[in-house]
Amino acid sequence: MNTIQYKFNPSYLEDSEPLKTKLSGLKSQEMIINLGPQHPSTHGVLRLEVVTDGEIVKDVIPHLGYLHRCFEKHAETLPFNQIIPYVDRMDYVAAMNSEHAFAMGVEKMLGISEQIPKRVEYIRVLVAELNRLASHFVAIGSYGVDIGAFTPFLWMMRDREHIQRLLEWVCGARMLYNYIWIGGLFYDLPLGFEEQCEQFSTYLKPKLKESENLLINNKIFINRTANVGVLPLDLAINYGVTGPMIRASGLKYDIRKTDAYSVYPEIDFSIPIGKGEMGKTGDCWDRTYVRMQECFESIKIIDKCIEMLKKEHKRNKDFDPQALVPKKIRPQAMDFYIRAENPKGELGFFFRTDGKSDIPVRCKARSCCFSNLSVLSTISKDIYIADLIAIIGSFDFVMGEVDR
Is 66 a member of any domain? Predict the structure, then answer.
């Protein structure tokens, strides 16, 4: 049998200009190490190339693309309604919120957004806020594990399971829903759903206070996260950071308020911001604190939605949640951008249509996770490696949306 012998030839390394530059700039005591792309500590398949001097981080270079889902290319080959299952798979921890943004964008292009029934709008906000809670529970619980607090993770996953079961009851899926359709909903709420949500809200409020006292107000957690990974507000704005991260840096900015979409203007809720009470404004503690406070605000929104669905926009045997769902989705030729407040920040969709087809010419997603992650290198210099892990966990990103 003929055999082929492969001989390692390192000469290709000499032709790599970035590598040569990087190696030539290294000092004798510095070393390049990799964090990731395995999931632990990097919160997904993210690879961080870290230049270290002992335990001190001198530079961080993120490498993306290990979970590339080709969302934007898929969207150029599919009708608008068939894109929604792919939208679910970007931020798979908050699929309802992503569906809501996408559906609103197409409805505005079609000119039917003002015709959507109020019951549909309140149901959309209800399931989106349930999903916001579930997303924040993953963020807060897994962050506790990152820095050595295991019990908060178990408590958060326990309460998230209630939400997963509620959403599964609505649409049959636990994470990837395909529930919010262009023009309406897949189904109306099942009988008894509002009452189950009321029971869950009553159960959750004291549990959240327990979790807040266990983790957020814990002296060990405060000492570990205060003044770590400080993100100044001007830097956050320059990098396009949004969501809980920019609010943690002190800016009271929430698209649910500024753009006043869906029925959010009819609901009274607050926008928590970081105040630097335990350290400098915009540190790891502030980012976790803001997410916890947003959980309390989401419960307020859920309670209001249930009230409106039970009193003002009641269940009706003649109500059809698919009454406005178009058979053929063919917007006029235009360029259009829609955005919404996802649990991790601003999720936007840019559409380009030709007016002839039900398939978009272009559908680009503006990922809040990508923008938030871009600031990592800037705020992670001259820190300990252990603090780098604490900073990554406080960002709360999903690589399925980054590598869209």
Answer: no
